[in-house]
Amino acid sequence: xxxxxxxxxxETVLLLASVFIFRSLWLLLDTLSVMHHTFVLWISLxxxxxxxxxxxxxxxxxxx
Length: 64
Hints:
By secondary structure, this protein is mostly helical. It has helices at 2-30, 38-63. It contains two helices and no strands.
């Protein structure tokens, strides 16, 4: 039970931290003119998905 509670706490902290990271990166990347090109946005989205999937799989495996 204690391990599950720690996992929930870690996931909550990760979620809250990701909000601030997302907002900061959004504002920083918005200042770069290269990020206003469609091709670069597609590359950025693809890279984000490629990193997100293994991260979520790891969390799911550890949560069992």
